[in-house]
Amino acid sequence: MSNFYGEIDPPQRLLMGPGPINVHPRVLRAMGADMLGQFDPEMTEYMNQTMDLYRQVFMTQNRWTFLIDGSARAGIEAALTSLIEPGAKVLLIRSGRFGMLLGEIAERLGADIATIDLEWGQVATLAQIEAALAEHRPAVFAAIHGDTSTTTAQPLEGVGALCRKYDALSYVDATATLGGMPVRTDEWEIDVISAGLQKCMGGPPGSAPITISDRAAEFIFSRRKVESGIRRDDISDGTRPFIRSNYFDLAMVMDYWSEKRLNHHTEATSMLYAARECARLALEEGLENRFARHVAAGKAMAEGLRGLGLTLYGQDAYRMSNVTGVYIPEGVNGERVRARMRDEYQIEIGTAFGPLVGKIWRLGAMGYNAELHKVRLTLAALKAVLESEA
Amino acid sequence: MSNFYGEIDPPQRLLMGPGPINVHPRVLRAMGADMLGQFDPEMTEYMNQTMDLYRQVFMTQNRWTFLIDGSARAGIEAALTSLIEPGAKVLLIRSGRFGMLLGEIAERLGADIATIDLEWGQVATLAQIEAALAEHRPAVFAAIHGDTSTTTAQPLEGVGALCRKYDALSYVDATATLGGMPVRTDEWEIDVISAGLQKCMGGPPGSAPITISDRAAEFIFSRRKVESGIRRDDISDGTRPFIRSNYFDLAMVMDYWSEKRLNHHTEATSMLYAARECARLALEEGLENRFARHVAAGKAMAEGLRGLGLTLYGQDAYRMSNVTGVYIPEGVNGERVRARMRDEYQIEIGTAFGPLVGKIWRLGAMGYNAELHKVRLTLAALKAVLESEA
């Protein structure tokens, strides 16, 4: 029997977890615009504008700054698949779930993996990173900027320069920080950084902005493999082992986003509109203002949680400004509190992964939700629930 | 200098090419709904509804019917990456650009490729398919249902049964036909079929519905590899070589869409809303009514083009009902006609790929645009442009 269900009609919920979060209304409206042909001049102009806007968001001059069609994880995999040749040595920092994800992806790519393994929530020092680079001499170094699983941000100042000194290409996942904490691509000299929209950018999940340095692009183009169905005289295959994915072949994706306009996938038009509007909002606000807004909201959240007598997880010095971990008090059923927050106040707060399951909640204040009044509403609701659970 | 550009404001263009096409207004509106937490009960209920809706669209009882986050090509790659083990024998039909794409992806996966190679626009007979299955004994058979590059539909009746007879898993790409021509998953006994929204489903590109038979799912689960950061007692690794992609590991994606709710990517919420609404529209109309509407529009397009004195490309018997190829008349500049159609009438018609570049135009009438008045407008505009070019 057919059942068509009703119109989409989600509850109006305040999403104060580690993401996705509520989307700015201007971004939702931008997705209401109709399609364009893939190579219509207006479409390619929107693609070019989006590249320019994300150069500003990533604080970079990188020509190759565009979108991967898929979730933030698609951006990570596109970067690693294009950078890691089978058997290549890769150095990773693992101190949380998403650092472990880098290892999972690298393993599937057949990499020879070396790791800086730290307790969850710890950060690597420059000295640790240099020692590991010197010891392992990796072809690729990869790390997470802000790992929401531990609410911890890895400092990246100086990391890119070290990688260049040891002749490694560097990759950073900035999914949880782009638009909320500084992601200084050029200043940090990181070769490839990818992100998502659904955290501090205030957009929906499903599009992954990425930026690629010229030296990384040169390497990736050396792995290019052009589809035989669309071969052209002005584009040739590379000299190195080809990339083991078609969808994530960044050389083909760059040819698609370049003036060559070599057909690859069909760009996710509505998500492009969303990504473009997210960037416009961030740049109109001003990146530094936006970072300050996230700091203020994160600080209010941290102080408010401490004011409730709760103990924060992690180190103040390396805490992400946009998501705060807090220990579930002894004797309190963490999942019941989350359910009551949702059912009685229509507020979502986050659970945890791995060794932190059942130990901490994660409270986000990012993008459209990095606002003091939303932090106050969340704290007031949590206070009421905890008091009635006591 | 910062430049934020203006609001998104595409021209109101009638997209009568091979896709993307204009999106039904109800689908655009569905994307305006705000986010939900990934595991909020309302979100998982929407996911379950979407699975049920696409079972109906794919005409299948397959439990495993869900969405891949990415373009239609992401669906193809997810299927092939999960089905093809390194070194496995794969049999493909290649008679157009997208058949060649199957080969490109299989090559990157390290498959041992056998092909039924036909001239572009030809279809394989059951006898040809059986002979190739008997000769090559592939682990996986893959074909395109409707290849828009040639406007040709491969008949699939009986193909799945042949594959089972020779113990091959079967895959079909139905990107260009789902919702416009019958895709009879269960009747055809095809193991895995993937599609997109941007053709006959009347939605935006960026989400790939997929359906998977139990026997294919069993094989895929035997290649499962659970991320160490989220390992759980109730889910274990498989016994066969793991899938060479994390993002496209259908075993993990199925665990995410199942009641196990094992975290994988963050589902592209807005695209899920869009996909759900596309399916609701298709089912409310009735699939058979919808197929008839596409046949009527395609017939009107074909007859109208012939009425203009033009010669159709391809064979009437195997023509897709939703996209029609037509030879560019001698002495006519095909690209100038397309530009004039766009600039003077705001109508897009399609160019071509590979051996057909500069030889044919491709005119679509699909999804929201499979309407007689839109076909008539397109023909009237083309007539006017051709007359003034003469």
Automatic annotation (TrEMBL), chains A, B:
Keywords, comma-separated and alphabetical: Aminotransferase, Pyridoxal phosphate, Transferase
InterPro entries attached to this UniProt entry: Aminotrans_V_dom (IPR000192), PyrdxlP-dep_Trfase (IPR015424), PyrdxlP-dep_Trfase_major (IPR015421), PyrdxlP-dep_Trfase_small (IPR015422), SP_NH2Trfase/AEP_transaminase (IPR024169)
Keyword Transferase among record annotations: yes
Pfam families: Aminotran_5 (PF00266)
Cofactors named for this entry: pyridoxal 5'-phosphate
Superkingdom of origin organism: Bacteria
Aminotransferase class V domain boundaries: 35-328
Protein's UniProt name: Aminotransferase V
Naturally occurring in which organism (per UniProt): Asaia siamensis
